Model the fold of this input.
Amino acid sequence: MTTHLEALQGALAGALGERAAISVALGEITVVVKAADYHAAMQTLRDDPALGFDTLIDICGIDYSTYGEGTWDGLRFASVAHLLSVKHNWRVRVRVFCPDDDMPLVASVTDIWRAANWYERESFDMYGILYEGHNDLRRILTDYGFIGHPFRKDFPVAGYVEMRYDADQKRVVYQPVTIEPRENVPRVIREENYGMK
Done:
């Protein structure tokens, strides 16, 4: 007798074939597809009756540049989608790596799931991942004049510019960051008999 997870794994392998690497860890299935196969694989995941992933739960970006304490030697950026099949009560994670670290680009899935619109915009805004075919890819959480992508590992903690309201000019002004970087090392003070009476 096959388990629910094994049935899903078999259905995924049958539908996606060689286009996907399927792994199981901690009771969850992750499907990794190449950028060239991403859109077709996502279409299959939704339209194949044996799978029926009709709901897109989330899409997020990932920056692997410091993953594994800097030992990661793969591609830097990935886009990860979480899908749900209401009919079969299945969940799956789909990961696609962007083939170019300098210009991370993967296909948009907004034509498959309309819910992908804001998720892809957020991933673009925070990580700089471009979604080819997205009809309105612009910032969604940061200001339109914001420089950089704040969730990238190489983005400075204090940012590049700070914004404040200038009462004399009666408008918002941008200026270089004036915060001096410092290292915060917590001091732990414990007496020898701390907690003892």
Q: What stands out?
A: The helical segments are 4-16, 38-47, 116-127.
